Amino acid sequence: MLEVQGKFCPAIMHRCVKGGKTKDGEKTDYPDPYYCEEYKEGWSKCFGKEQPKHFCMDEYEWPNRKGAIPMVMVSWYEAKRLCEEQGKRLCGDDEWTLACEGPERLPYTYGWKRDRTACNIDKQWMKPDDGILGIKDGGAEKIAAEVDRLSQRVPSGSMPRCKSPYGVMDMGGNVDEWAVNVTLGGKPYMSIFKGGHWCSGARNRCRPTTESHDETTAYYAEGFRCCANPK
Fold first, then answer.
1. 117 exposed, middle or buried (CB, 10 Å; 0-12, 13-18, 19+)?
2. How far, in Å, CA of 108 to CA of 164, rounded?
3. What is the torsional sign of CA 39, 41, 47, 52?
4. I need a labelling partner for 53 at 20 to 30 A (CA). Which of 76, 123, 124, 126 fits?
5. Is the sign of the CA dihedral 196, 201, 207, 213 positive or negative?
6. How many CB atoms lie within 10 A of CB 35?
7. How many Å apart are CA 11 and CA 122, to the nearest integer?
8. Nearest-5° angle of CA 185, CA 187, CA 188?
9. CA angle 223-228-231, nearest 5°?
């Protein structure tokens, strides 16, 4: 695990200087839009009281081994259990954000400009067969085959520039990561996703979240990593 120590900002603004778009893909001059290709380097504004954080985080997505393909089709509850079995815990989304953006509060884990070659992002989306992925009993082989068909995961650590200021790998893209919903107070669920996955159109910045999936959700592009309190 890697040690992370710093100050988390509860709300931050960056200034987009190139490629700003709304959630619907329309061009916008808004300084901090939903999509942005490049932000003003070194410019960030913190709103709210900074919160000191000190914790440890897995360097890689579960199973936390360099060269391993990250695990998917795991619910928030299952991810929580697997972390706890190793004496760890799921990361809070605030911890995840700090580890991703570092002391400079970068918009992207690797810097200020979106780089399609740094992390595993912007791959072509393929339509999943949810009839197969939704099978709960007796469909393990079919589910595994469907996940293999859809998967465009890369081995953990295989993209060396996809590295946060604290040394944490693959925080932008590859697989979406479960975390504990801290910043929204556990609403609507205690589960929250960070990081985005490999498909084009997914959020791949440090700050954004997806909080619309409950703790039982398990899907083909969602995984996790663990955190722990420092000893």
1. exposed
2. 9
3. positive
4. 76
5. negative
6. 20
7. 27
8. 170
9. 160
Walk me through the domains of the chain, giving residue ranges and CATH numbers: 55-228 (3.90.1580.10)
Q: What percent of the chain has pLDDT over 70?
A: 100
Helix or strand or coil: residue 76?
helix
* 53 token code pair: 């954080």
Question: Is pLDDT larger for residue 9 or for residue 135?
Answer: 9
The sheet with strand 209-210 has its strands ordered as 209-210, 191-194, 176-180, 222-224
Let me know how long the chain is: 231
Q: In angstroms, rounded to a whole number, what is the distance separating the alpha carbons of residues 231 and 215?
A: 29
Residue 108: both structure tokens together: 């992207």
**What residue has token string 């410019």?**
43
- Which is nearest to 222 in space by CA: 200, 206, 190, 198? 198
Please determine, for residue 8, whether its predicted confidence score (pLDDT) is greater than 90: yes
Cα separation, 126 vs 42, whole angstroms: 37
